[in-house]
């Protein structure tokens, strides 16, 4: 090496990481390409980065965002002690330099490759599938170096994504079980389950120097047969009494299916219902319909006493009009039931009378005959 080359290498050199790769977590400065770090170099660490110096397999210094002059002993106390940079010898730094991105890596997908089992209070053991997204950042670079990238040439999201997903699915499975949420209520508790899982996995990720920033559940699904049962439960809840409504719904469904196939294998009994079950179903159906009718019936026919739906104008039993017409006693003015012959208050006769003079029939209570004018007693 000539004298010119010696002075050329002593000029101040800027060392920095400029990268547009959004998935790169760690980048190793390429010393093997003769990108030597001399004592008079300048180290630039950008926002969202940290720089780690490694010498002879040992961690020497960690630099946060800022600009550092490497000929300033105050900037590199550990390197100075180990490598004797306080003496202005000519040899370049031959250790390792890593730049670590500390920004947040977002929108990483997670999902259950196989169904996970959960114990449900209503349906027993249920298979659940789920998917969503998570985000993370490097929290403690020195831990991440020891646990994740070590002496490798760098680290990308794809290098750790598979391992992170396994941790997430495992913790989520336990969190769903501990939450006590039933399959009917899973969709309403995504945030609660995510928060429980997030608190649990922070310790696991923290040991690797990783800070888990967010965990989001986009969907938790159960098998199709469980979804159908959930739909039935929902329908029953709308009907009111769950058990009675469910029995009525199943009864109607069985009778409808039997009606569609009247000649298949001995009708309804051979369709898997049985004679006794058929009678029970019929009785349940009648009782259910009777209960529904009774709940709706609010009036009674004034003529025959039959239960009639409220608002009906005519009785379906006797055919008479539902209005109970009454008349007024012409003597005392009391209300008298239609068809009565005497007033229940004063005892006056309510039928038509004849005029004693001309024989003309006049209404009860009339004092003078409208034909002859004779006073009627």
Description:
By secondary structure, the chain is α+β, with helices and mostly antiparallel strands. It is 34% helix and 25% strand. The chain has helices at 3-10, 77-83, 141-149, 157-179, 190-206, 224-239, 242-260, 267-273, 275-296; strands at residues 14-15, 24-28, 42-45, 49-55, 58-63, 66-69, 96-101, 105-111, 116-120, 124-138, 154-156, 210-221, 297-300, 307-309, 326-328, 335-337, 353-354, 361-362. It has a five-stranded antiparallel sheet with strand order 5-4-7-2-11, with helices on both faces. Strands 8, 9, 10 and 12 form a four-stranded antiparallel sheet that branches. The chain has a three-stranded mixed sheet with strand order 1-3-6, with no helix packed on it. Helix 7 (242-260) crosses helix 9 (275-296). It is rod-shaped and about 150 Å long. Residues 1-12, 84-90 and 292-297 have low confidence and may be disordered.
């Amino acid at each position: 090496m000539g004298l010119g080359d010696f002075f050329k290498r002593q000029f101040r050199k800027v060392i920095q990481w400029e990268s547009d790769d959004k998935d790169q977590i760690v980048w190793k400065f390429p010393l093997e390409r003769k990108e030597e770090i001399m004592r008079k170099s300048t180290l630039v660490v950008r926002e969202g980065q940290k720089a780690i110096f490694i010498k002879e397999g040992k961690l020497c210094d960690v630099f946060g965002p800022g600009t550092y002059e490497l000929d300033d002993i105050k900037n590199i106390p550990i390197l100075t002690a180990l490598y004797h940079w306080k003496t202005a010898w000519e040899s370049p730094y031959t250790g390792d330099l890593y730049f670590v991105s500390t920004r947040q890596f977002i929108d990483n997908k997670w999902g259950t490759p196989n169904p996970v089992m959960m114990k449900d209070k209503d349906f027993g053991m249920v298979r659940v599938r789920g998917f969503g997204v998570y985000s993370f950042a490097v929290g403690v670079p020195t831990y991440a170096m020891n646990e994740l990238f070590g002496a490798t040439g760098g680290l990308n999201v794809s290098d750790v994504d598979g391992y992170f997903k396994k941790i997430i699915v495992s913790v989520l499975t336990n969190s769903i079980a501990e939450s006590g949420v039933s399959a009917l209520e899973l969709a309403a508790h995504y945030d609660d389950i995510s928060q429980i899982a997030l608190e649990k996995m922070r310790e696991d990720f923290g040991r690797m120097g990783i800070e888990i920033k967010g965990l989001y559940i986009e969907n938790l699904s159960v098998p199709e047969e469980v979804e159908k049962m959930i739909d039935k439960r929902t329908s029953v809840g709308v009907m009111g009494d769950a058990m009675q409504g469910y029995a009525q719904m199943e009864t109607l469904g069985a009778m409808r299916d039997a009606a569609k196939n009247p000649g298949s294998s001995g009708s309804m009994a051979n369709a898997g219902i049985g004679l006794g079950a058929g009678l029970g179903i019929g009785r349940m159906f009648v009782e259910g319909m009777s209960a529904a009718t009774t709940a709706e019936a609010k009036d009674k026919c004034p003529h025959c006493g039959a239960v009639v739906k409220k608002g009906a104008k005519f009785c379906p039993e006797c055919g008479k009009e539902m209005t109970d017409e009454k008349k007024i006693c012409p003597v005392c003015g009391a209300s008298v039931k239609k068809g009565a012959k005497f007033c229940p208050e004063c005892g006056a006769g309510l039928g038509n009378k004849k005029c004693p003079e001309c024989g003309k029939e006049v209404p009860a209570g009339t004092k003078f005959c409208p034909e002859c004018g004779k006073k009627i007693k």
